[in-house]
DNA sequence: AACGCGACCTGCGAGC
DNA sequence: TGCTCGCAGGTCGCGT
């Protein structure tokens, strides 16, 4: 279940393998994985073949590869001008997507959906494979457009003030240096909704999924249904800082396993197994309460048709309607 | 604007 | 044992 930290691990790994290489062949094994490419799999493949990968960019859980449509000019001794990309290969991992670098000798994964062959490079695998069991994720081509605020489109090796059109509706994420807390707080207060719903709204702040939302709320000792228009600045800051900390921790944990040849999304497990304080802990003790010598049992509620895990003691519901 | 819900998928575990 | 059912997750789009 890749959330922002896992996608960032993929981005960092991927960029070292694919930057500067040309896509020489495209094989769409399962067209459902390119269904968001409106013009169909043939158009998808045809437009990718011959394109050169300039970078790997991430905002929230969206990942895209800006492309140049011509091979790298290699003028002897000349300073090659960096092309301005207009198109990008977009990847969203959904629930179960993986981007794997593989040698051609490695047999196909059971859930291999798309295979990209890359121009040869010394000591590097020839293929970039999109593997996805549940097909919530996918690949498609999208245009690059100027960002609304003129800042970088996302985290990148060479940041440009361009963003994939299909990701332009989402806000910056908490790990983005250009994220504005003031703007976040202003828009949060203007809403009339519950805090968790707001945290999951990618248009307000991106990259937070169900798991990290619960972790951040637990850490900030705030309830998921807390009305956003009653949040004090310090509380909003607390929950955002908490989200940032949880993501940073997960990023550090995910980073430990990505010096292998795989650009792997599956590194989530180690972190999730050991470090979760709220998510999935129904019926278990609240770790913070236990450490303080209190007894409290984590509970699970349905909220937004999802499970939400809270401690009834340190993330209390309102009393007499007052928070 | 807010919000619920269905659609998109597969694998897994529970219950019969 | 084999079946069905519900559930998990992120995103999009539609209806209210």
Outline the structure in words.
With 323 residues, this protein is an alpha+beta fold. It has 2 domains: 4-167, N-terminal domain of MutM-like DNA repair proteins (Alpha-Beta Barrel); 181-310, Helicase, Ruva Protein, domain 3 (Orthogonal Bundle), CATH 1.10.8. The protein is built from 8 helices and 12 strands. It has helices at residues 4-18, 41-48, 181-189, 195-200, 210-220, 233-255, 268-275, 287-291, and strands spanning 23-28, 52-53, 57-59, 62-68, 87-92, 97-102, 112-118, 127-132, 138-146, 162-164, 299-303, 306-310. Strands 2, 3, 4, 5, 9 and 10 form a 6-stranded antiparallel β-sheet that branches. A 4-stranded antiparallel β-sheet has the order 1-7-8-6. Helix 1 (4-18) packs across helix 6 (233-255). The model is unreliable at 255-270 (pLDDT under 50). It binds a DNA duplex (16 and 16 nucleotides) through residues 1, 3, 32, 35-36, 61, 92-96, 111, 132-137, 191-193, 197, 200, 202, 209-211, 304-307.
Write the layout of secondary structure elements.
Elements: H1 4-18, E1 23-28, H2 41-48, E2 52-53, E3 57-59, E4 62-68, E5 87-92, E6 97-102, E7 112-118, E8 127-132, E9 138-146, E10 162-164, H3 181-189, H4 195-200, H5 210-220, H6 233-255, H7 268-275, H8 287-291, E11 299-303, E12 306-310
Antiparallel strand pairs: 1-7, 2-4, 3-4, 4-5, 5-9, 6-8, 7-8, 9-10, 11-12
Helix pairs in contact: 1-6, 5-6, 6-7
This protein binds a DNA duplex (16 and 16 nucleotides) through loops.
